[in-house]
Amino acid sequence: MDSGLSDPLPPHVVFYPFPIQSHVNTTMSLAELLCLAGFRITFVISEHGHSRLAQYTDTLRRLSASYREEFVFKVVPDGLDPDAPRSDDNLWKIYDNYQKDAGSLFRELNGASPVTCIIADGLMTFSIDVAEELGIPLIVFRLIGPQCFWTYFNVPQMIETGDLPIKGEEDMEAFIRCSDLPSFCRVADPLDPFLQYIIAETLQTKRAQALVFNTFDQLDRTVLEHVRKHFPNVYTVGPLHKHLKLRLAQVSGAQSQVQFNSFWQVDRSCIAWLNKQPPRSVIYVSFGSLTRMTREQLMGFWHGLVNSGQRFLWVIRPDLVAGHEQGSEPIELRKATEERGYMVGWAPQEEVLEHSAVGAFLTHSGWNSTLESLVAGVPMLCWPYYADQQLNSRVVSEAWKAGLDMKDICDREVMQKMVNDLMVDRKEEFLSSTGKISKAAKDAVTEGGSSWESLDCLIEDIKAMRACSYRCLQ
Q1: Cα atoms in the Cβ-side hemisphere of radius 13 Å centred on 409
Q2: 217 partner at 20 to 30 Å CA-CA among 82, 154, 319, 453?
Q3: Whole-angstrom Cα distance, residue 50 to residue 261?
Q4: In this predicted model, what pLDDT tens digit does every residue of 451-472 receive, in sequence order?
Q5: 12, 48, 78, 121: which is the annotated catalytic residue?
Q6: d(CA 407, CA 409)
Q7: Domains contained in the chain, CATH given
Q8: Does residue 428 sit in helix, strand or coil?
Q9: Is 121 an annotated catalytic residue?
């Protein structure tokens, strides 16, 4: 074995995301960045996700044309019937099926082509056991922000000190109030299965070789200092959607247009509608891919938007409202929508947020949506649904001064006032704050920026894993 030592095979990285749209989309951006660095990628994806990408996007064709056999998909079942909703009600079933099949999956992949490392979703750290058994390094990729991760990490201490479970309506005298804690912490029993699951997944991360966040140092510097005391190998490589565009542009010499990897049919007619609107005059409304609401909540939002007098672009997924029938809205609201609003089933969100007509974003405060809005310099009106979103909305409003928090409220009058605060009364104040964060985010993913350099470090560290593994085979 002579020439092989000086020219080993490229690193082979297996990506193992939780199979919901937001996690797959962001993880795929990181996977493509490593593929650009010369790595071989195997991307584990559910049959449902794979079929959705094939049906609604050109992602599979584009990746195949760009990277051929260097970026391949491993399609696996998620345990649900094809027509079953991939909503939060069924996430446990998907998790259980993935956990059951992880051992055979990684043995198969490692047998076909030795795996340099696994980059696993932070929700599926059960894969650490299999990785250790096979002697494969594993890196955890958390799809939440560092603030939420740090909160989860401290939940055992909060239980020990009596801050959890929350008792009655009291609030802690601190920046983070009880109402701002992630939704999983809003339980009466500290032994609640989901709370215990979150604790276990977070603490398991300490067994991984490294931890990756989709953020940038300037945004989360203080909390990252705390995290790094317990997790020395932390890489901050975001905002990934912008980072990928810049790296692709460096390779191609032209600005790259990366298509959103949507599990829903994108309606691009909204771009033509936005083109006809004045600058910063539209509030974009989208509650992500999992949020569910009642019809009463929907109508509360609707009345608030219409009564505000502002233009709006609203994404209403087919499954957003349980039992909702299209076309059943009151006639007066449909008329008001035609006058000042536009509605689609799904929108190209990155493109919408970067459009000059968009002046604010009514959002569920998912981490991806939050970052996309910050990069675009668009202030947010936050209505969090679950998981990390309650905390994200608090940080947006109080730490970054990038918007308003409408947590746990769906009142048309409050909605109307907050929309006008963002779009009229305090417009310049919020645009100033988001503009500064937008510049910092773009600087971070520009060559020489903190996220650019962190990704370079991650690339070199994975190469070192490959070199070490290769020497062990000699």
Answers
A1: 17
A2: 154
A3: 10
A4: 999 999 999 999 999 766 544 4
A5: 121
A6: 6
A7: 3-238+445-473 (3.40.50.2000), 269-441 (3.40.50.2000)
A8: helix
A9: yes
